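Entry 12.
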Amino acid sequence: MSINRVIISGNLTRSPELRNTAAGLPVLSFGMAVNDRRKKADGEWEDYPNFVDCTLFGSRGEWLSERMTKGARVVVEGKLRWSQWEKDGTKRSKIEVVADEVVLMSGYQQPAEQVDDDIPF
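Predicted 3D structure (tokens):
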């Protein structure tokens, strides 16, 4: 048995990109920087960033795309997905997080055309 679950928190490295599949399913793509701490040879600690690509499928992506901005702090829960492809004769691969849940911790932007006082942010 294996378990494929991940929970990460960090800051968006870029504003999210929303697109639709051929079948019309919304797909939200965004990148995060998640820091790790390492002890240097001199004994001092330093933050070391890990850059993680994330993808969210479904209508929540539309809502989030209007509210997430570069630099916003978010928490993402999901699973890891490995993919590979070939570009210019070179094989490439990456691991990304396919998000099930995304929580906005900061950087929430209320769309100008819509004001909803019932959203607790």
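Annotation: Residues 9 and 117 are 27 Å apart (CA to CA). The chain is about 5% helix and 55% strand.
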